[in-house]
């Protein structure tokens, strides 16, 4: 099974792809879709959609795990992330990929055993679980953590 994890954002959308077989998982790829703040909102959302469709077509995931929008004090940021989540879900639907959603608290709880874990604690557990030595961006770590969270939740079912 191939799981695509997504950490949504308008400026940076992290993605992480893992392959799961029996009780083992391995990373297939991870990175970020980055948009320019100088581009229009429509262009930025279009880039996220187009690039994500390319990732979906390349890796052909069986499912996508997407971080839920958490409460944000900055309403403008929350709305922009919500719009990014919308085009991400649209790309998944167009590629026939089912979407599961997890809150940041759920992801931290599943990955580290503690819902208030720090970013560095999550990063260490992601690297340990996937055998990765270095991950460059927090958005990549978060996306891989979301993919792992989905796999771990599937194991419990």
Helix percentage: 40-55%
Order of helices and strands: EEEHEHEHHH
Taken as a percent bin, the fraction of beta residues is 15-25%
Largest sheet: 5 strands, mixed
The fold-level CATH name is Nucleotidyltransferase, domain 5
Q: Count the DSSP helices.
A: 5
| Name of the CATH first level | Alpha Beta
How many separate structural domains?
1
Overall outline: globular
Describe this protein's structure.
This protein is of the alpha/beta class. The protein has one domain (2-156): Ribonuclease H-like superfamily/Ribonuclease H (Nucleotidyltransferase, domain 5), CATH 3.30.420. The chain has helices at 41-59, 75-94, 104-112, 119-130, 138-156; strands at 2-7, 12-21, 24-34, 63-67, 98-102. The two termini are 15 Å apart. The mean pLDDT is 94.
Compact summary:
With 157 residues, the chain is an alpha/beta fold. Helix 1 runs parallel beside helix 2 and helix 3 packs across helix 5 (138-156). The chain has a 5-stranded mixed β-sheet with strand order 3-2-1-4-5.
Looking at this protein, list some descriptive labels:
single chain; 157 residues; alpha/beta; Nucleotidyltransferase, domain 5; five-stranded mixed beta sheet; 5 helices; globular
Question: Secondary structure elements and their pairing?
Answer:
Elements: E1 2-7, E2 12-21, E3 24-34, H1 41-59, E4 63-67, H2 75-94, E5 98-102, H3 104-112, H4 119-130, H5 138-156
Parallel strand pairs: 1-4, 4-5
Antiparallel strand pairs: 1-2, 2-3
